[in-house]
Amino acid sequence: MSSVETGPALLSHAARPPRPSALANALTFGWRAVLKFKHVPEQLFDLIMTPLMFTLLFTFVFGGALAGSTSDYLQFFLPGILVQTVVFNSVYSGMGLSTDLSKGLFDRFRSLPIWSLSPFAGLMVGDVLRHTIAGLIILSVGLALGYRPEAGIVGVLFSFFLLIVIGFGVGWIFIVLGLLIRTPMTVMTIGFTFIFPLVFASNIMVRPETMPEWLEAIVVRNPVTHMATALRGLMSGTATAGDVVLALTAPVLLTIALSPLVLWLYRRN
Question: Of 79, 52, 77, which is closest to residue 67 (Cα–Cα)?
């Protein structure tokens, strides 16, 4: 009887565990994003096979026709395919968010005593992981095929940092779509409808000066073109500050414009 009577008293005097910090919340949801690769291995298949096929097919099928040799074309193409892969992978942010919303997971997250934006922080941690894995796969394949980054390891590190910033900025577009559209496949369809013209009407695969004048005028102003140009420069050691600033302009503007919208949409739902 004494133990029953003193139990509640002891519990009332027990110290509460410290409230987790915003960083701890973000890392926890980031780990959740990592675990998705374990429980949904199809994501890794998409992540690996799509960029791998693009790299091999374009290098060996179009390389000789576009650059005279596959090795010359690979030096031009590989930094561009890194940008393309990061932009395409950003679609998965919106798809994952749409899936969680459709299952009611975010309603449960709102009821928890956590930082309100930690689920989005977790999405971004998962994005960084996806971008890094895909980038390393493409770079490894490129090195095996003969690609050589003239700027060495320093240029590669700066290039990957730029890639992550690009993915972070572009990802806001698809997070907005994920909050507005509750069907993951619809998010993917609309996302790729928007992304495909931007990616393919750029200098990722061919030089703008080989295009008709009206198309060249569009391509040279395309934000994806600026991203690919900066990445080529960082890899080869010829990038200027202006190249990097132009590459960062679109991701920064997207973050400034869309992050408040994401917060508003999240609180409104």
Answer: 77
Angstrom distances, CA of residue 98 to CA of 104, 168, 188: 10, 18, 10
Rounded to an integer, what distance in angstroms lies between the CA atom of residue 232 and that of residue 202? 14
Residue 12 has pLDDT above 70, yes or no: no
**Residue 126 · residue 33 · CB < 8 Å:** yes
Contact between 97 and 178 under an 8 Å Cβ cutoff? The reply is: yes
In the chain, % helix, strand, coil (3-state, to 5) comes to 80, 0, 20
- CA–CA separation, 98 and 109 (whole Å): 14
Which position has the higher pLDDT, 5 or 237? Answer: 237
Q: What one-letter code names the amino acid at 19? A: R
Q: Name the band, by pLDDT with cuts 50, 70 and 90, for residue 263.
A: confident
| DSSP-derived secondary structure for 70-106 | HHHHHHHHHHHHHHHHHHHHTHHHHHHHHHHHHTTHH
**E strands present in 64-200:** none
Query: What is the rounded CA–CA span in Å between residue 199 and residue 166?
Result: 13
Q: What is the pLDDT of residues 158-193, one digit of tens each?
A: 999 999 999 989 989 998 998 888 788 888 888 888
Cβ-contact 247, 227 below 8 angstroms: yes
How far is the first Cα of the chain from the last one, in angstroms, to the nearest whole number? 50
The whole-angstrom separation of Cα 261 and Cα 267 is 10
What's CA 49's distance to the chain center, in Å?
Answer: 16
**pLDDT tens for each residue of 65-123:** 877 788 889 999 999 999 999 998 888 888 888 888 888 777 787 777 777 777 777 77
d(CA 269, CA 172): 17
Query: Please, are residues 174 and 96 in contact by the beta-carbon 8 Å criterion?
Result: no
